[in-house]
Amino acid sequence: MAEEEPPTTTAAAEQALARLAGLARIALQTQASLAKQSVDLARGTLSGDLDRTSAGRAYVESVSREGARYWRAVGELGVDYATDLVALGKSVSSTVMREMAAAGRKPGTRHTSGTAADHTHSSGHHVMPEGGGPQAPNARTSGESSSGVADQEASPRRVKVRLRGPVGGRAEGTITVANQHPRPRRIQLSAGDLVDSSGGLVGAALAVSPATVTVPSGKERSVSLGVALDDGSFSAGERYSCTVDVTGGDEATIEVTIEVS
Fold this sequence. Notes:
CATH class of the largest domain: Mainly Beta
Radius of gyration: 22 Å
CATH topology of the largest domain: Immunoglobulin-like
CATH architecture of the largest domain: Sandwich
Distance between the termini: 74 Å
Shape: globular
């Protein structure tokens, strides 16, 4: 009997894409089902069919129990996977909320005003190197560029960066992340929502490139930050801001301010 030949690279790629498409379809179906159930529960509560107090208590208990179970299961899959999952979930959620807010704006308005942005971030996981305590990936700036000025605070876990650019142009800058762990680390950077001075969401996003970078022990890598300053979202003389979470050890935060001329 002839041996079955292993799949070619193209066939393997097609199989992987088919599996990913299937997983995406299942995920979308699940989210749609959960959304429908959420709407049904809200209607039941408003109509009096469900007791609001009992339903609220059950919600809190269920979230606490299932949340703990979820993270136990994720932890068994590996810390790197858990980090990727959190970053991906935050990125997807931020994009959905930003696009929904932008689509819901009334004609003649540029920003969603009066909506306070939440800049409270949950603590990242602590990476414990062998023979030492928790270490933070040292996120720091690489100096001044033609369009960006970086201000480093004394604390290695919080850095302030200023980017500058004209309306219709682009504000750009560069930061440097360094790994002081004894082993290579995969450092991830995730940008939060971009807001104006009143806290209103802006219909644009800060680009971070690369968003994931593996840094050898004792080495540094450059990461670019930038945003296109289109006149539909930005105004001359205004300031905008967002935060960039840096994970891969202890959490670090980059506070980005964008000055538009």
